[in-house]
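Objective 1b. Sequence-to-structure analysis of Potassium channel domain-containing protein.
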Amino acid sequence: MVFHSRSAHVSNKKIDLEKLAPYAIHLAMVIAVAVYVIAGAFTIREIEAIPQRIAEGSRSRREAHEVRHNALNRTRKCVLAALRRLEKASNCSQQLDISHLAWLDECYKHDLRRLSADSREQKGEERQGKKGSGNLTDENDDVYEYWSLMDSVLFCFTVITTIGYGNVAPRSFNGRLFVILYGLVGVPFTMLAIANLGKFLATVLKTWTRPFVRCAKRLKRRLCKPKYTAKEKQRLMERESRKPAKTKTGDDDASSDAESELDEEDDNTSDGIVLFIAFLMYIIAGSAVIAAYEPEMDMFEAVYFNFVTLTTIGLGDLVPQSDTYLVITLVYCTIGLALTTIAIEIAADTLKKLHYFGRKVENVANVQVWFGGKKISMKALVKNLGDQFNVPLDELDNLNLEQFVDNAIKVEQGELATLRVDRGWMNSNYWRAIESGTMHYVDDDDLVTLQSNRNYYSEF
């Protein structure tokens, strides 16, 4: 008894582990992507780190460029004001006093002198930088400027998800080479993880929403008393005729089963609508949350940011700025990308139906059917099914799979009643009985009696 209880306990554990295995795979893939992003962030920070001296030089050049830009804008405004004064002073008579031209000269004097001084200073710094670039002192060797951790994580995340904001990018050869290698490995793996997560979320959404959808449909049918179409009535009658006779309560159960079968056929359409509504609600709810903690985004800008991000457009004009809530933003984007893959899959199925609309079914034998991660061709599946039910080999060889699939689709659509063919006993069961050795002839008993009598008399 103790041994039996232990074996039962072990078997229950095995069953629980089998149920938890798919969830463990989903979780492991998500964790692997997160680790890959963090490892890439630290790597790109080290690769793109530059000495502080060079960084300050580039910063000073950027500031000098901004000074020139502001100076030229100020000069343009001064020139426009001088032209207005000339126009008023000359009264459009084309006779200008030479002193008036000095106003234009005054517009340029200060800014041109400032620009020339900045240019000379910048050239001197560049000469000193070239002389000392190969002989950095020990105290400057350990002083580097790095990307911020937030920029590094966000950069790696946008690379492997193909969003690509572009707000930060590598400038060195090693950094760009790293992005190529990092993306070659990370993009396919991340797309696989996101697609896997999307299927898991789709299953969860269908499980949660289907009972409510079916309940609403049944309530609508009872209140509105809908009239079935001719095809639906025909299909219901055919299904009922195939079932054995039932009592009155059984008839009620049969009608409810038929309604549930029709509900299952409508689930594909309702699932697409539910997923689309869920995607819109996810964007709106996420936008409200992001707008609450992102300082530079209002509600509309958050919706715009989410749409551009989740559709992987990635313009980069709006990027996350909050270091504290960066993890929440990335998790939100990951789940949103998974929902986007579901929407793309639904759209692809619809386009596939439109693409093959009206076309003849071809090459059915080579179609691969997937079952639990393993695949088998349609031809092999039909052959094994025929062997299971002892269908003669000549019938299997002469079976036209294209016509069979086409007729099966017509049956499901109500255009045909059934694919069953009434056969006589000799045609349907004769060869099966011979092959199994269960054929029984009428005179078998007489032959057995005669043989036993012969054996009896031969003994005397």
